[in-house]
Structures are given as structure tokens and as C-alpha cells.
Amino acid sequence: MKALLLTGPSGSGKTTLAHTLLQRYPELTFSISATTRPPRPGETHGKDYYFLAEAEFDRFLAQNAFLEWERLFSGHRYGTLRQELERIRDLNQVPLFVKDVKGTLALKNLLGPGAITVFLLPPSLETLRERLIQRGENAPADIEERLLGAKEEIRRIAEFDFVLYNDELPKAAARIERIIQRYLL
Ligand code: ADP
Ligand code: 5GP
Q1: Residue 37 CA, closest ligand 2 atom number
Q2: Which ligand has the shortest distance to the CA of 14?
Q3: Three-state secondary-structure class, residue 85
Q4: Which of 52, 95, 147, 159 could bond 88 through an S-S bridge, CB–CB 3.0 to 4.6 Å?
């Protein structure tokens, strides 16, 4: 199945780039993840995430409703609901997934070779730290956890179809648009 899977460390620019792509390509539909983390200011349930209580997440787990899920930062869980993929498939749209490295590889495995994986690489860990601080959404300890995670994730870049260097946003956007036009439209 055709799909675009964006991955990379937290703060690498996945959400920012995803917003740009969703505006430019009406064929793409964002796959909304379920999470137990609380919403950030400006985030909406059913748009940015399905924000679930721990018990609701447990209930979906018991129903085997997740295609994949992970426990990530500050102990919060994140997962892809099977019904979300079905919703996008029924719309005849190409799903855009924004996931961590493990979730992305699990989904690629499920979706097959039509699914294109793109790893967003920040210019340096120091730049990544600055972007996370500047985003202003995470406590210092949470940022350190995300940076440790980044080192682990960057080790695995060889497992993705494309590595996209995110130095300047317009350049990164142009690079990913070439990938979309060649492989997904
Ligand atoms: P992710 O979704 O991967 O966690 P975000 O899209 O939230 O990352 O980006 C993290 C922060 O870095 C945001 O404040 C965003 O505006 C900023 N950012 C993303 N890409 C760039 C870039 N190329 N240059 C400068 N700032 C960027
Ligand atoms: P944030 O808390 O910054 O929104 O997201 C933290 C991390 O969770 C990001 O790297 C994001 O890509 C990842 N993530 C979001 N949804 C999912 C999901 O459904 N599954 C997995 N495995 N990771 C996810």
C-alpha cells in the first residue's frame, strides 16, 4: 500500500514538515496516533492525536486494536490504531504517518514496498537541543531523554528508504516533495 512514513528524532521537524505537506498535497491524509500524553496548548483531540486515558489505551490494547505501539518519553504510550488506517484507506487517500523509528519500521513491514520511509536528520545534536528548547513544550529532563533517544535513532538511518537533511525548512520541503512526486503520486 502507498504511504509516506516520516521519522526521525523528536525535534527533527517531522510535525512541521507534515503540516506543509498536508497543505500542498490533498492526496495525503494525516494518520492520527493515539497517545496517553496530555495535549499541548493548541493541540486538538481527533486532529493532532487521539488523547486517551491510560484505561482507554489499555482497553484498545486488550482488543488488539493497535498495529504497533511504543512506550516513549516520560512513560507515555503512543500507538497506531488499525481503524485509523482503515479510515484513510476508505477515503482512497495516501496516509502520512509521523512515528518514531521502531513504529515506522513496524508499519513499513505491514504495508510493504509501496510505503516510503523518510528519516529526518537534524544538522547536529546541539541544533536538535536548541530546537527542542525553542519549541518550548518539554521540561529539561524530558528534553535530555529525547536527546538520548535521538542518538539511538540516528544509529539506524541505514534502515530507511531516504535520509532527509533538515538544515533549512524550505530546502527540506523541496527534497521531500521530489520524493512524493516520484514515488507516491
Ligand atoms: P518533531 O515533530 O520531529 O518533534 P517539530 O516539527 O515539532 O519536530 O520541530 C521542532 C522545532 O524545531 C519546532 O519549533 C520547529 O519550528 C523547529 N524546526 C523544525 N525544522 C526546522 C529547521 N529546518 N530550521 C529551524 N527550526 C526548525
Ligand atoms: P510528541 O510527544 O513530541 O508528540 O511525540 C513523541 C514521539 O512519538 C515522536 O517521535 C513521534 O513521532 C512518536 N509517535 C507519535 N505517534 C506515534 C505512534 O503512533 N507510534 C509510535 N511508535 N510513535 C509515535
Answers
A1: 2
A2: 1
A3: helix
A4: 95
| Per-residue pLDDT at 73 | 87
C-alpha cell at 69: 505501539
Q: How many Å lie between the centroid of ligand 1 and the Cα of residue 63? A: 35
For the beta carbon of residue 63, count every other beta carbon within 10 angstroms. Answer: 10
- Ligand at minimal distance from the CA of 171 is 1
Longest dimension (CA), the chain: 43
Residue 127 burial (CB < 10 Å; 0-12/13-18/19+)?
Answer: middle
Note the pLDDT tens digit of each residue in 120-173.
999 999 999 999 999 999 999 999 999 999 999 999 999 999 999 999 999 999
Backbone angles phi, psi at 172, to 5 degrees: -65, -40
Give the number of C-alpha atoms closer than 13 A to the C-alpha of residue 123, restricted to the C-beta side.
9
What the block records as the C-alpha cell of 42 is 493548541
pLDDT tens-place string over residues 37-92: 999 999 999 999 999 999 999 999 999 999 999 999 889 999 999 999 999 999 99
> Which pLDDT band holds residue 1 (cuts at 50, 70, 90)?
very high
Q: Where are the domains of the chain?
A: 3-183
Residues sharing a CB contact under 8 Å with residue 112, sequence separation 6 or more, in sequence order: 1
CATH topology of domain 3-183: Rossmann fold (3.40.50)
Look up residue 143 and give its amino acid: I
Helix (H, G, I), strand (E, B) or coil at 144: helix
